[in-house]
Amino acid sequence: MELTQENPDVDAYLAVGEAVDHDHPLVRATAERISLTHPEAYSYAKASYEFVRDTIPHSQDSGDPRVTWRASDVLEQGTGICYAKSVAYAALLRARGIPAALCYQRLADDDGTNPVIHGLVAVRLPGEERWARQDVRGNVPPGVDAQFSIEEERLAWVVRPEIDEVDYPVLHAEPHPVVLHALRAATDRPHLWRTLPTEL
């Protein structure tokens, strides 16, 4: 799939935003800590990916009712759904000068019911001409095996067009407005679950 930048200027994917707040002291401190042992761009991108994927539980998996939407909140509270974890990963990448974009899939149950938008991150390492999508949601349920990969996608789920699942090709500098509205309007995760967007 060919990914398309919403903004043609790659610097847009390095910018500080309301959600991708990598100018926040906690985001910068976390990035500094990871880069101490992983100073090279590829190594840092992989290590920060694994940090978000593995040490920040998806709130559905952990049963945490809190809803986070800013990168700094995700890191401070140690929780978030796929959208929020993606924002945190994007912020850690941008904090080290690595362009990062937010992108999405539309997934559904095996019979095509209960569609939902799933959040991903696309990274563009120095010297690379193309973006590579990553999934930091967390490898739950059993059998899911998302991994950091630049050459070949290793996402949690591959879309099934026959049941109207979709890979959205657009790369966003900030969360899609529909996604951001759902996060900000939710009083808790059960409320968010009832209002998750089903399409972009």
Automatic annotation (TrEMBL):
PANTHER family: BLR5614 PROTEIN-RELATED, CONSERVED INTEGRAL MEMBRANE PROTEIN. It comes from the Bacteria. Transmembrane segments: none annotated. Residues 29-134 form the Transglutaminase-like domain. Gene3D superfamilies: 3.10.620.30. It comes from Streptomyces hydrogenans. This is Transglutaminase.
